[in-house]
Amino acid sequence: MSLKYYKATTPSHRERVSINYKKDGIWRGEPLKILTAAKVSTGGRNNKGRTTSFHKGLGHKKSYRIIDFKRKVFDVGATVLRIEYDPNRSAYIALISYDTGDLSYILGSEGLKVGDIIYSSFTQMLPVKSGNVMPLKNIPLGTTIHNIETKPGRGGQLARSAGTSGKLVKKDSLYCLVRLSSGIQISLLGSCLATIGITSKIDSFNQNFGKAGRIRWLGIKPTVRGVVMNPIDHPHGGGEGKTSGGRCSVTPWGIPTKGYRTNRKKYHKKRK
Length: 272
Description:
This protein starts with a strand and ends in a 55-residue tail after the last helix. It is an all-beta fold and 272 residues long. It is 2% helix and 24% strand. It contains 1 helix and 16 strands.
């Protein structure tokens, strides 16, 4: 992957860094229509018209690319036809054609190129090649993986954004231990599928958009700080002059935002 740097010929070009899609060989045309679906922008509103997800709205019109996260066509070769940009995610996607003639979109792996042949198998030991899919129990220890299932058959849910991956660190007869990019270690069944390699577009987080308008094109609205609001709008608001709030950083509803654990274990009561 290569980055594109700009000269400061205009204010919006100053310090701007983008990805050189042309040099990376990304498909310049339209997506495959039969593998797309309509996507309606909600603007962060629910069915009652109330804002439930802040700082969302406007942005360019998008069509959703139907991605195959399950990769359940086993023991059939698939040829990579092209690598495409997907406006709905940070990583690239790849259009593949199975030997049976079926077409599908999958998450792009770093190093995957047009013409490569990849496989998905539940029983066979495939080569440790970027894009191949195997259950965790068949993957060697220390292998870098992405698009990891949390439950067998559900489809990949972990390590799907650009440049992310997990590492298989331990295996036993039933479970496998995977270390994610965040450092969290999660125990998964050995029958969960995972894709070999790192998710594509590893330089995604090195981009500098250069101006606020490019962020608006993505459908992200500006964020107003709580300390500049009124007391009725935010717990940090009010006060004479510039104040820092006088309390720990919280959300508009008083929930701590720094050092507060939000990933809790869910305990379900047994039905009698």
